[in-house]
Amino acid sequence: MNVYDSARMADVLRPLGYSPVDLPDNADMIILNTCHIRERAAEKVFSELGRLRQIREARKLEGKETLIAVAGCVAQAEGKELLARAPYVDLVLGPQTYHRLPEMVARIARAGGSVIDTDFPVESKFDLLPEEAAPQNEGNLTAFLTIQEGCDKFCSFCVVPYTRGAETSRPVASILAEAERLVASGVKEITLLGQNVNAFHGDWNGGTASLPELAALLHEKIPALKRLRYITSHPRDMEQALIDAHRDNPIFMPYLHLPVQSGSDKVLKAMNRGHTADEYREIISRLREARPDIALTSDFIVGHPGETDEDFEATMQLVRDVRFASAYSFKYSQRPGTPAAGQPFQVAEDVKEKRLAALQALLREQQDAFNASLVGTVQDVLVTGLGRKPGQLNGRSPYLQPVHFEGDPSQIGQIVKVRITAPFTNSLGGHLHEQEGTAI
Ligand code: 5AD
Ligand code: SF4
Questions:
Q1: Quick one: 189 and 88 in the same domain?
Q2: What is the span of the domain harbouring residue 398?
Q3: Are residues 300 and 390 part of one domain?
Q4: Which of 354, 373, 392 is the last residue in one of the domains?
Q5: Within this chain, do residues 398 and 362 fall inside the same structural domain, yes or no?
Q6: How many whole angstroms from 22 Cα to the centroid of ligand 2?
Q7: Is 33 in the pocket of ligand 2 (CB under 6 A)?
Q8: d(CA 117, CA 97)
Q9: For a pocket test of ligand 2, which of 35, 196, 333 has the largest count of ligand atoms closer than 8 A to its C-beta?
Q10: CATH number for 365
Q11: Which residue's CA is the closest to the ligand 2 atom numbered 3?
Q12: Does 62 map to a domain?
């Protein structure tokens, strides 16, 4: 979501004459768009700020001014502390106020000093942003689109409900309009974004539409949109209608990120996740029934307060049972103001490290096995650009793996059939299945 937000900040600043540059040394304004989800993310902000200060000093010697802004969730959660610790920062703004950036920049130009805006304004930033194309990567063929923000679930460990605020959905009409603009500019694959994206319920036709309803509208109204994904989902909102849509809506990719965090019922309860490990297994089996080629990814936290060896073993067992195509796993990190941070029975650092290493080894094995299982299969690959070697093309599989194969540059932007021949650590090799008649 920060990638998406950064691009929208660039959109907002463009009418003021700003445009992106490659190096901070050449920038009149530098925005750090920050993440607060784990401790190290916030630490990185401070070390990065030290570096930016030096760049600013060097530029000053050349007679150039540099505005330094901190945006995102660290700004939201620790705005005042941040200004106290790094008073040379000009601008501090939370994720809900970036539509006000031009006004803030003008205020600094007029009055000098620092400006801080970490409100949760009543107006929606989405109504006030310019109608520009949102971020596009991989040769303008894929894009993110935020449809929902915030969270009301209050997991014990998580800062999101405090930094991103209450759960809200964007109206369907505004999402359709943005998707249409993206697709008109060449985008073939959209990833819908939200902290709780499957809790989406955007205004539509005097009522609201759910995520599967939104997906159906996107498919129906925008035929040139070929692929649809969504992140991040919560198991509690994985309703049957959404599971069915994985079978019925052809633009849904057979790949789902569904964080489970732990495989122990006791820890899941302490985390306030609202479901058991078996309920998660059951959701997965319904998904596999609806869409047999679906692959799953997840998030895991090891060392939540109170987690014993036995609880950790239950997580390992869940991973063995489900078999993931890839996953993110983290050591529990105490976040200020969250319920888990103050709980007794914090797990020792070396125990967390051991558990994380064991979990990651198992997940690595599963990822390798998944990649190897694709060898010999034919996959639809969205051709995103030229490869590194002459004659080679790069693409994206339904499972988000980069795929390298020989082909013609005219195929960039098409979806072609590729027979997978080689699994690498984080990518696949293959060759075009048929030369003709395969492009969609
Ligand atoms: N410590 C470690 N990992 C965390 N996550 C969220 N909060 C914490 C925390 N305090 C992880 C969860 C979530 C992902 C985005 O980050 O696994 O799904
Ligand atoms: Fe955080 Fe996700 Fe839990 Fe919301 S549902 S509190 S965003 S982990």
A1: no
A2: 375-432
A3: no
A4: 373
A5: no
A6: 34
A7: no
A8: 7
A9: 196
A10: 3.80.30.20
A11: 155
A12: yes
Among residues 364, 406, 413, the alpha carbon closest in space to that of 388 is found at: 406
Tell me, yes or no, whether 220 and 237 share the same domain. Answer: yes
Is there a single domain that holds both residue 130 and residue 209? Answer: yes
Domain co-membership, 360 together with 391: no
Q: Map residue 398 onto helix, strand or coil.
A: coil
Ligand 1 centroid distance, CA of 154 (Å): 12
Same domain, 367 and 268: yes
Q: Is any atom of ligand 2 closer than 6 Å to the C-beta of 417?
A: no
Counting ligand 1 atoms within 8 A of each CB, the residue from 43, 154, 157 with the most, and so the one to mutate, is 157
| Tokens 């599989």 sit on residue | 397
Alpha-carbon gap, residue 127 to 72, rounded angstroms: 19
The pLDDT profile of the chain, 440 residues, written as one tens digit per residue, is 999 999 999 999 999 999 999 999 999 999 999 999 988 888 889 999 999 999 999 999 999 999 999 999 999 998 999 999 999 999 999 999 998 999 999 888 887 778 888 877 767 777 767 776 555 566 689 999 999 999 999 999 999 999 989 999 999 999 999 999 999 999 999 999 999 999 999 999 999 999 999 999 999 999 999 999 999 999 999 999 999 999 999 999 999 999 999 999 999 999 999 999 999 999 999 999 999 999 999 999 999 999 999 999 999 999 999 999 999 999 999 998 999 999 989 999 999 999 999 999 999 999 999 999 999 999 999 999 999 899 999 999 999 999 999 999 999 999 999 999 999 988 999 999 975 444 44
Instruction: Indicate the number of domains in the chain.
Output: 3
Annotated binding site: 151, 155, 158
**Beta-carbon count within 10 A of 246 CB:** 20
In the annotated binding site for [4Fe-4S] cluster, the residues are: 151, 155, 158
Ligand 1 site residues, Cβ closer than 6 angstroms: 37-38, 157-158, 259, 261, 299, 301, 330, 332-333, 335
E-assigned strand segments in 79-183? 91-93, 115-117, 136-137, 142-146, 148-149, 168-169
Instruction: Judge contact between 175 and 214, C-beta under 8 A.
Output: yes
